[in-house]
Amino acid sequence: MSTKVPNIKLKIDPQDLQIQTFTVEKLLEPLIIQVTTLVKCPQNPSGKKKGRSKRARILLASVEEATQNLLDKGEKIAKEAVVLKEELHAALADVQKESQALKISAEAFTGDPCYLPKRQAVVQTARSLLTAVTRLLILADMVDVAYLLEHLTVFQRTFETLRNVSSKSDLQNTYQKFQKDLENLDYLAYKRQQDLKSSDQRDEIAAARATLKENSSLLHSVCSACLEHSDVASLTASKDSICSEIQNALNVISNASQGVGNKKGQPASYRATLGSALDELEHLIIQDPLVVSEEKIRPSLEKRLEAIISGAALLADSSCTRDFHRERIIAECNAIRQALQDLLSEYINNICICNFSIQDTFGFETCLHLST
Which compartments does it reside in (predicted)? Predict the structure, then answer.
């Protein structure tokens, strides 16, 4: 387990004895086996003196050895830890106390293994020791989580700096650090993902890691585009959308690594956003000319159009987009803008024609009514 840990506020309850990782489970396994074997000793042992306490002595010696190994690891972690230092020392003292209590009760038990009250006392003390060791290991696991969260905090600061860069040179320098911090965070998140017992939390971290990787290059592209075209609102909206996805992924990693549940549903990628924007425009564009109001329909259509241009701009500014494709994307965006203007003009003309026809029809019917 890691020991270089900064001061981080954790959401995990140190008093919660729920085992969340395979590592803690594996470390507890030798002690659990010995204690369980001890608990399952026959309730009515043999009355023969020869060898009647040998098995108990062997089991208790194994328990003491396993406990001492865990104490050594716990003392090393507590010595170098920065967070939960007091809790770790308290847990170590509790383990040492329970271990000493087990040793005392064990001596009485091995001297008279046929006396059931002494056997029951050993069983109870062994269970108390198991509880104390479990709490110690969970605290040690929390130290590892704090180490992960510190790297997440470092990445968060770099991410915020990248989001607010004001020049191309700052963008390049910050993005290099951003990639390095992302690599460190991804490595620790992967280790935590593999260690967690909950399959749901493993899946959540895996999805969040994929989101971070997918959006890191997109963030660089859209930040670069925003520096060149700061007056384009759609680019700013795209950057905010990407930053929101990155922030959500960080929150998922933070919560899942601590065993805290996350809300279901991941934000849509820029590809899904672009497709949705096209579908919305296509749906909105089907209008009845008789009921169309330019004051209402124009802002709605332009809003959908900006969403499409925003998604297309991400594709055009991507580092993997060839120049030929980039030029075609820009040309098609301009074509869409012009098509929308032509469409709106056609709608307005149809409204005027329809209104004129309605007025003529109404006037003709009025004349007929008056003549009769």
Answer: Cell junction; Cytoplasm
